[in-house]
Each structure stands twice: as C-alpha cells, then as structure tokens.
C-alpha cells in the first residue's frame, strides 16, 4: 500500500499554489476537482469541494529533508505564514503552518 492523505479545499488554485510552495514541488496530476503531489513514497491529494466540512482532528505531518531553518526561510520567502516557529519536541523539532482552508500542517525534523 501507499499512503495518500487527502486535503479538502474550496479553492483548488489557492490550495495547489500553497502546497506547491510548502512542498517545493509541482503537481503530478491536476484537474478542476483533484490534484496530486508526489511526496517521497506517498502522495498528497487535494480534492475540491463546494463546502468544507468542519476541521477534522487529523493533522498533516511532513518530515523535512533539509534543516528546519532552511525550510522556514524558504517558506517565509514564498509568502507562507508560519503559525508557530521552530519548537523543540521530544522527537526533534517542528514548526506549524495552516493551509488556506485552516488545516494544520506540521513540518518536522527528527533526531538522527
């Protein structure tokens, strides 16, 4: 199996732009209702909906492949708002973002 979380959005163009900047990637597939990004061995799906249901209790977690300071700088340069800056965690460090629809997105750097 291959993991594919799905993010629901009411504005596909805005979501694709935001996730493209956060992931530093271009979509591998895009249409008016569905966009996919390759993320390592997984994929991230963006699904357009007319009305978004209440926020879920699921949080998208990304594992950084470069130092978190570099990721933070790249996101800020791309105009991505950082909700919570780099924090020490038991597993390493993290920072928190919110996508344009309000979903939490955590970017993590794990201890080696």
CATH topology: 2,3-Dihydroxybiphenyl 1,2-Dioxygenase, domain 1
Strands of the widest sheet, in order across it, are 1-4-3-2
**How many domains, as an integer?**
1
CATH class: Alpha Beta
Which blocks of ≥5 consecutive residues have pLDDT under 50?
none
Structural class: alpha/beta
Shape: globular
Order of helices and strands: EHEEEEHEEE
Q: How helix-rich are the residues, as a percent range?
A: 10-25%
Provide a descriptive summary of the structure in words.
There is one protein chain. The protein has 112 residues and is an alpha/beta fold. It has a single domain (6-51, 58-110), classed as 2,3-Dihydroxybiphenyl 1,2-Dioxygenase, domain 1, CATH 3.10.180.10. The chain is 20% helix and 38% strand. The protein has a 4-stranded mixed beta sheet with strand order 1-4-3-2, with helices on one face. A 4-stranded mixed beta sheet has the order 5-8-7-6, covered by helices on one side. The longest helix has 12 residues, at 12-23. The model has no long low-confidence stretch (mean pLDDT 90).
